[in-house]
Model the fold of this input.
Amino acid sequence: MGLYDSSRRKKTQHPEFKPVARGRESVRTEGPRQGAPTAKPVVTGAARSAVRSETASLLAEYRKLVQRRGALTAERAELTTRLERGEITTAQFHKELRAKIQEAARVSENLSATAARLSELGYSGLAP
Done:
């Protein structure tokens, strides 16, 4: 037999048995699993309104964070122009720039957390 003749050596398996790998040994289970039917959660009117109000507050926070991100970009550009004009020293520039970068990182982290929570709630209208 050649190197690629492994298909000839394989034994046929019964379709009702599936091999399941656990560690180094192979365990066979009988047939397809018959799980209990999953019940959909019942959503009441109060829960639905709570989700709506949470979605609305998260959307407001998301929009506020997006605006702050844009404002930080403008502030960093203004900081650079102030340095070029000689209004601030390089040490002041670096100090303020580090603060802006740290705030931008916090805003970005909060944006992703808010977007993830909105996705969990089923809201799909976020623009990238």
Summary: The longest strand covers residues 17-22.
